[in-house]
Amino acid sequence: xxxxxxxxxxxxxxxxxxxxxxxxxxxxxxxxxxxxxxxxxxxxxxxxxxxxxxxxxxxxxxxxxxxxxxxxxxxxxxxxxxxxxxxxxxxxxxxxxxxxxxxxxxxxxxxxxxxxxxxxxxxxxxxxxxxxxxxxxxxxxxxxxxxxxxxxxxxxxxxxxxxxxxxxxxxxxxxxxxxxxxxxxxxxxxxxxxxxxxxxxxxxxxxxxxxxxxxxxxxxxxxxxxxxxxxxxxxxxxxxxxxxxxxxxxxxxxxxxxxxxxxxxxxxxxxxxxxxxxxxxxx
Amino acid sequence: xxxxxxxxxxxxxxxxxxxxxxxxxxxxxxxxxxxxxxxxxxxxxxxxxxxxxxxxxxxxxxxxxxxxxxxxxxxxxxxxxxxxxxxxxxxxxxxxxxxxxxxxxxxxxxxxxxxxxxxxxxxxxxxxxxxxxxxxxxxxxxxxxxxxxxxxxxxxxxxxxxxxxxxxxxxxxxxxxxxxxxxxxxxxxxxxxxxxxxxxxxxxxxxxxxxxxxxxxxxxxxxxxxxxxxxxxxxxxxxxxxxxxxxxxxxxxxxxxxxxxxxxxxxxxxxxxxxxxxxxxxxxxxxxxxxxxxxxxxxxxxxxxxxxxxxxxxxxxxxxxxxxxxxxxxxxxxxxxxxxxxxxxxxxxxxx
Lengths: 283, 352
Prior knowledge:
The complex is a heterodimer.
Chain A: H1 3-40, H2 43-46, E1 50-51, E2 58-59, H3 62-93, H4 98-112, H5 115-133, H6 142-166, H7 170-178, H8 183-212, H9 215-220, H10 238-245, H11 251-282
Antiparallel strand pairs in A: 1-2
Chain B: H1 2-27, E1 31-36, H2 41-55, E2 58-63, H3 66-74, E3 80-83, H4 89-94, E4 99-113, E5 122-123, H5 125-132, H6 142-147, E6 159-163, H7 168-180, H8 182-187, E7 200-202, H9 204-214, E8 218-223, H10 224-227, E9 233-234, E10 236-238, E11 244-245, H11 249-254, E12 280-288, H12 298-311, H13 314-320, H14 330-340, E13 344-345, E14 348-349
Parallel strand pairs in B: 1-2, 1-3, 5-10, 6-7, 6-8
Antiparallel strand pairs in B: 3-12, 4-8, 4-9, 4-12, 10-11, 13-14
């Protein structure tokens, strides 16, 4: 066999393994979720009851779906000005300078901090700070969780958009300058439009990351199984309820938790799908 | 022809494997494996280590949760399991063979709170019901102050912190609440995790204690094994005799002074003893009544029983208080010993 063939076989089999793993996960999620969907039907998604008490078991995932989407959207909104500004700073204004390198490294470092550390920081520093500001009396809830989530997703949004922004061809920008554009106008009318699909992809990635984040959120959101009625009320997310409750779960409850896992998988898939569609349209 | 030979070869290989496995357990030194509840984990770690050092039998205990302990015993992958909630009749019937319960020590659920300057807080059954159902929301509510004359309570919101994960601690707590409050029984009920009417969740005893101690005005319930090791304010709870009792090693043990059934399967909450702290309970070890299964050797069964007999002896029980557990009462220990003597190997009692 020549080396070409070997390479081909190795590459094919390795990617095939990944396909099998992903497929196997979907398969086991669906298999595990069947009893729950059989019992509750579509009501599983629309019901906000979560009663694990023996004899009157009733599971609905709506509070967790709501909690996940609300915290993730809020995190995206909070992180947008920060990460967008940072990526412009790194990719345009101070490209290839020392300041940009240091800042870029710091942003990448944010991605490397374990989420439990973010959780601890939120618990011991951010929470008392928010209580001190007088927003709320106990500091747990959607708002606190969203702020920490926002900081956690900054590197995902920043790195990709920064990369894309710095890849905008110089010819384009120089052409705009030669027409008398100011720097702001170049960014506004040339850089950002040229890079927008990449920037958007960065935020989709960040949003996906926020959807699945578990540890930091569970430490801060208050783990109350109801639909949050304000930004400052407690709630729960899909990933967090799974992490909290699977340990002692069996039977219908275990199946319901797996079903939540499946729903999270589906939601992430939908978000990515919509993202790809929008990117395609932009191009 | 080829297929037949393959089958024969495989059969020989499989049978020889089984033979060697059996021989191994018979000849080699016995080691004991167990898994289950996390609540008694520090106690088991301590006494099993002592036992390994003094008797030379290696004992391994995995704290994987009560549910895991029951599953492991069902799957017959451990010598014994451990659980904080006894197996109901229905669960017992579902086990592959008869199972016995051995109580090993007692623990309690304490009501922890965070109110600077409030050193003593007395909670009647009625107050517990109203606080945990969300009917009383301020600390200076007249109903609380009336029950705590001489204590200055702040005008803060009551923030209830419960467990976010499933837990034996929640089970004992909710069992007690169900016994003292009809409203609770109807609205919430008993279980390892519940449909909480108010409050917020924190993961594990450390999570609850952390949240309570970081939040002024918070109240939560915590396993005594953890709470006793922390500097945390604990409420006096009214027992069935009307006394307000602080949770201590002694008051928790006192809850087992009443009548205990011979199979020891009883929730001790709301005990009738006047000195008892009412939110207390046993933790159990569970094992098969007939020890000859899955090719277990007699030596393995004997060592398992010896260990358990030692675990309920005065020597091991004396260690309990050192790690904040309450020792068995003499009556409970005697019942445990009697149960161990009913455990058999091929029909013959192992201990005598």
